[in-house]
Design goal:
The protein is α/β, with parallel strands linked by helices and about 300 residues long. It has 13 helices and 11 strands.
Length: about 300
């Protein structure tokens, strides 16, 4: 079977559960992985015959995709902040809005470094803590862009930490990874003082599970997605309490939030004595909150 024939067949089968555009994008991604041909190269080699190994691999991937398994888990890769990360079902798939969270931190630190003439660890070598690191996409991306930063990343899941460590190794950055159950305040003793705290914590109430896409609820780790309906702000509450004693003066908290709860999280941080700001994502949704420690 030629490359073009296999491509067309693969795409048509995906259209049973995906729309035209998504089926096209996924098919491109799969074929680049399998054949190592970029889209432009594939067009010039559309009559090239695929090997039996190629066809077997395509069939395997197709069967997984038709079970609604995300393509990122099928291929064990996801792109985030210009880089390819290893992912599996022990970690969330990195999202574009989280890139905006990372970009806000990087821009703030670089701007502060440029305008600040007095040596200060916040600008020269900030101590940064990533709470609930998952794949490590946040902590690794920050360290790649801010090489002088000292980054610590924590997660309750040992399996997630293995993924994060793999990504740090493959992208050649040094990060201090720790297994910490952040909701257990007794475990805070192992953590130090930080200039920046960042987190993309679980924030989806369990009651919303039924309205989420099957590829999310069936494959992504529940522990990284959902919070109890009666206390959807538990992670922000713990982060604010932790920051009272573990965040430096004028230090900053950056958190991703549920688009419907950004104002609630902002008020929560205000009541806890912080100066918060909401930032909209590229879709105009209120998805990121920054909170500055006033004293």
């Amino acid at each position: 079977m030629t490359t073009q024939q296999a491509y067309n067949d693969f795409k048509e089968k995906l259209k049973k559960i995906f729309d035209e555009r998504e089926a096209d994008n996924i098919t491109d991604w799969i074929f680049e992985k399998v054949t190592h041909f970029k889209r432009t190269e594939r067009r010039t080699r559309q009559n090239a015959e695929l090997t039996e190994n190629h066809l077997n691999l395509l069939q395997k991937y197709l069967e997984e995709l038709l079970q609604h398994k995300p393509v990122q888990y099928v291929l064990n890769e996801a792109w985030f902040f210009k880089r390819k990360f290893y992912v599996n079902e022990n970690v969330l798939i990195p999202r574009p809005e989280t890139e905006e969270l990372v970009e806000w931190i990087i821009n703030d630190v670089k701007l502060a470094t440029a305008i600040n003439s007095i040596p200060n660890t916040l600008y020269i070598s900030p101590q940064i803590l990533d709470i609930g690191t998952g794949s490590g996409c946040i902590s690794v991306s920050i360290k790649k862009e801010l090489s002088n930063a000292n980054v610590t990343a924590i997660d309750v899941s040992e399996k997630a930490l293995l993924v994060a460590k793999k990504n740090a190794g493959e992208l050649n950055v040094e990060i201090d990874f720790l297994r910490v159950d952040f909701l257990d305040e007794n475990e805070w003793e192992s953590l130090l003082q930080y200039d920046i705290i960042v987190s993309n914590p679980p924030y989806i109430p369990i009651k919303e599970k039924e309205i989420l896409a099957k590829n999310i609820t069936a494959f992504e780790p529940r522990i990284a997605l959902f919070v109890e309906d009666n206390n959807p702000f538990i992670f922000y509450e713990k982060i604010a309490k932790f920051a009272k004693t573990h965040l430096s003066k004028n230090g900053k908290i950056y958190v991703e939030v549920h688009e419907e709860f950004a104002k609630d999280v902002k008020v929560f941080f205000e009541n806890a004595g912080f100066i918060p700001t909401i930032k909209n994502d590229i879709y105009g949704k209120e998805r990121i909150v920054k909170a500055i420690k006033a004293s």
